[in-house]
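Re: the 610-residue chain
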Amino acid sequence: MIRRSSTRAALAAGLSTVVVLTGVATAQAAAPQSPPARQDAPGVDMTPASVTDRLIVRYRTATPGGSAGVAAESKRRDTVVAEAAKHGVAAEYSRAMTGGAQVWQLDRTLSDSDVAAIAAAVEAADPSVEYAEPDRIMVPMAEAPNDPLWSSQWDLATSAVGIDVRGAWDTTQGAGVTVAVIDTGYRPHADLAANIVGGYDMIADTSISNDGNGRDSDASDPGDWTVANQCGTGWPGYDSSWHGTHVAGTIAAVTGNGAGVAGIAPAAKVLPVRVLGQCGGYTSDIADAMVWASGGSVSGVPANANPARVLNLSLGGSGSCDSTSQNAINTARANGAVVVVAAGNSATDVSSSSPANCSGVVAVAAYGPTGARAYYSNYGSLVDLAAPGGDMSSATSNGIISTLNSGATTPGADSYEYYQGTSMATPHVAGVAALMIAANPSLTPDQVESLLKSSAQPFVASCSGCGAGMLDAATAVAAATGTVPDPGTDPDPAVSETEPNDSRSTADVVSAPGDLTGTMGSSSDTDYYSVSLAARTSLSVTLTPPSSSDYDLYLYNSSGRVVARSINGTGQVDSISYTTGSKTATYYVRVVYYSGATGSSGTYGLSLSW
């Protein structure tokens, strides 16, 4: 049965939980229920933590061997201790990181700015220091198959706001690709466990890990619940979030098993890497997790037998991108991994949210069931695209349903629950990236990012600062597999458009590859052309406008959904390459006026080949 629970306390990053679904779900019980009012803890700052008790120091060169090396290392450590002492803090060497950096433990928790001042003093006092910076604490950024809750998964539907996973599943379901979920770990949920592979607990500090030990091969989530004042004065305490399990279910819940929810890439595998525990997690652990998950070497940690091609980081903190995170991202990308990061839930510019503001990541904003930017979502020029994250700000709106656990503190029974947040948007993009790589394993991280953005759908509601558009799984996978037809194909002689052709129902029929000419009769004119194509056909369309004009090019499928577009500037050629689905279908090419010449001066060239 499906039961409603009272709203559980939210995580400090803004994640809210609304409806718990437990037991054996039936198809009749799949309809979404009206959620109770969102209840954030009163008087609590719902932003990522801005305090730490650790420092990261990296040196330009390693110390030499022998007695000289021992002396040099001792001098380096004495400098760190001395500079910390000048700020009234005792510092103790903790451990070495991958890449040669060191983690230093302070004897008390300070603000990030205070630790940054110590770091700056260490850099100034020792020329051999490449950089020193706070080891900042990150927190979770929260918030048709026969699976009975499929009807509640508006985010995966073929609709104006859904990402159309069924269209992508015509090509692939993600087999052969591993996605690392760098988060709170996982629970062996019956609707997820079959797709979990390997994993590691990267939390070194037992005061955070909540499992009685440091780093080990057990990535299961013991719970991240806290009590009042545990993470700082005024901290109210929260129930366990089971955040990583929710994220992992969105990516790769078992699908078509007649139970629960469907995952975006159900044939892919999830590599859980635990970095967030009680009160969050340290940058140093998260950085090591990125390197290890992508197949890199981390000191003291066994080699990863299941390197991931996609890293999902539904986490973050405030501030600029730190060197530790950037170096780890660079390593992960060099290892071939796409790094997908939540933009953040502070309703501010993403430039102040790390690691979403780092270079080389795919930063993801969130929209709700209407397609409008979610009230909590960060935004700005560093956002790459938007994906469904849910919006439960009213009784009629909805979140993202996925796998969870019913335990308030320690693990309980399997459950399903609605969450909201850029944390929920991020695994949508990570799942689609897995589908793209499964369809075309040769794709590089840069190519995946570019294709995700170029295949995104135009926004259907206000989503300022949300990047290139709305995530579209089917179009992204088609773009990943698309090929450009041989330019040497001999086209038919040029033909001209026939008005009226300003709708799909009156579209000019193009029966063979070739060139044609058309005219933008006025600033409100638009021209449609229809073409019937066999399954798995590669279509190429090129629009050449007058040199002083800007016309845009769109391609629609038979149901009127945009599957590709090109919107270059004045005088620039627009081009589309698209591979059709598994069935013969009619597609519609549309030319749209944006600016420039009309009438007799508004003649354009259009070339179609397949």
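DSSP finds ten helices and 28 strands in the chain.
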